[in-house]
Sequence to fold (170 residues):
Amino acid sequence: MGNGLSMRFLVRDRLLGIGDDYWIEDDQGRKVYLVDGKAMRLRDTFELKDAQGRVLIDIHQKMFALRDTMVIERDGEGLARIKRKRLSLLRNHYRVSLADGTDLDVSGKILDHEFAVEYDGELLAVISRRWLHLRDTYGVDVVRDDADPALLIAIAVCVIHLAEKEREDD
Fold:
């Protein structure tokens, strides 16, 4: 597990619609992940790269066509599938099915960007705007240091996208 310090990343809202490159920074202002806007324009693909330019995460626009489901890939392999939990009464509630068979739970006020990602009741990441004074930006706090931050950031982006799409459909 490690030192118990969380890693905090700053993510711009409306990430899936932007054609420009965009850096996701940590709270020290270091550039950690690059969102490749060219891939979005040319291939309808949301690509999250590390600082060395390696592609860590792929989300294809055509995946959005699956009703209320999004798929995250790495190297052409499915990494995670995200879908709203239909029978959750209280709050926005999504389930993330990982390729290795584990399930993550996402719940909270997703449209307000105040929610959590959990595995088996244990907190993995907290998404919040509260402590940020930047407009149109939210924070992803990765609580467990053996978690995959790029995947958790991509999950947050997808869940927000699904929740907004659902609100438009209503």
